[in-house]
UniProtKB/TrEMBL annotation:
This is F-box protein SKIP1. It comes from the Eukaryota. Pfam families: DUF7885 (PF25372), F-box (PF00646). Signal peptide: none annotated. Gene3D superfamilies: 1.20.1280.50, Ribonuclease Inhibitor. Residues 104-169 form the F-box/LRR-repeat protein 15-like leucin rich repeat domain. Residues 16-57 form the F-box domain. InterPro entries: F-box-like_dom_sf, F-box_dom, FBXL15_LRR, Leu-rich_rpt_Cys-con_subtyp, LRR_dom_sf.
Length: 308
């Protein structure tokens, strides 16, 4: 009997392009995100059609690919941002409302605006280090993605306290907020990587952001505000307005003392862990005459590793 199958030493050769759509989706679902984007989608037309199936795009997580320190400077370039935007826009288009989790960096308003329109079931949005994400796209997310329960806008300096208010009011399920800033006490670790003008744009309105969180996010359970420029007043407002907090990260919040933290958090019954400011302040950055007394130095910066 004649057959179209061609024999190889190991048996009949399989024509991968002839696999059923369901079989291809099964295969693609077992690949890593990197393997899907770099190889499988380019095999042939049938593989590309399977690659675009909504079931493969409920989660878009690139976070683990930003761990390489050798690529840091390139990530802040316009070309890299355009590539991330292109990928995110494609996923938003293909997901057909199934996209629930996004973890990327260096995207912009261009892609996030489309996410807001196409992804009403979004629950997790992590967009760290995005210099061109502004209140415009975050306000769209607030109105269009009411199921949001986790938001990470760390190092996104064009997002203001006004967006925090909208997110809090329009996304009642929000349980996790990460609004960390870069280390402004020792910016040397960012020099040569992050553009200087962006470093200088570090938000100064810590108490305004604290008030926005306190007044609009009463159900928060985890809050990270590392290196935030808030005072004891701002911390008090958070502790009074967010009684459900179980975890609070205040690392690098140099304007807070141990007394401020103890007083503000004394009535927070659900608080299980609080990370306090604990860092080394070099002589070249802060001088004793600025505060006038060594003890104040020690209390203000909350450190047991203080050295001169």
């Amino acid at each position: 009997m004649e057959t179209d199958e061609k024999e190889t030493e190991s048996g009949p050769r399989v024509d991968w392009a002839e696999l059923t759509h369901e079989c291809l989706i099964n295969i693609l679902s077992r690949l890593s995100l990197e393997d899907r984007w770099r190889a499988s989608m380019l095999v042939c037309n049938s593989w590309f059609r399977a690659f675009k199936d909504p079931s493969l795009h409920s989660v878009f997580d690139l976070d683990t690919y930003f761990d390489s320190p050798t690529e840091l400077a390139r990530w802040w370039s316009p070309d890299f941002e355009r590539n991330i935007d292109s990928m995110l826009r494609s996923v938003a288009d293909w997901s057909a409302d199934s996209l629930t989790e996004i973890r990327v960096r260096h995207c912009s308003d261009r892609s996030l605006s489309l996410v807001a329109e196409r992804c009403p079931n979004l629950e997790v949005l992590s967009i760290r280090s995005c210099p061109h994400v502004t209140d415009d796209s975050i306000s769209r997310i607030a109105f269009k993605c009411p199921k949001l329960r986790e938001l990470d806008i760390s190092y996104c300096y064009e997002i203001s306290h006004e967006s925090l208010v909208l997110i809090g009011r329009k996304c009642p399920n929000l349980k996790v907020l990460k609004r960390n800033l870069m280390n402004w006490l020792d910016p040397s670790q960012h020099v040569g990587v992050v553009p200087n003008e962006y470093l200088n744009a570090c938000p100064q309105d810590g108490d305004s952001e604290a008030a926005a969180i306190a007044n609009s996010m009463p159900l928060l359970e985890r809050l990270e505000i590392r290196f935030a420029k808030l005072s004891a007043k701002g911390l008090n407002s958070i502790c009074q307005g967010c009684k459900n907090l179980e975890f609070l990260d205040l690392s690098g919040c140099a304007n807070l003392t141990s007394r401020d933290i103890a007083n503000a958090s004394s009535n927070m019954e659900r608080l299980k862990e609080i990370k306090k400011p604990n860092f080394y302040i070099p002589r070249s950055v802060f001088h004793t005459e600025r505060y006038g007394h060594w003890r104040l130095y020690d209390e203000r910066f909350q450190t047991d590793v203080f050295r001169i």
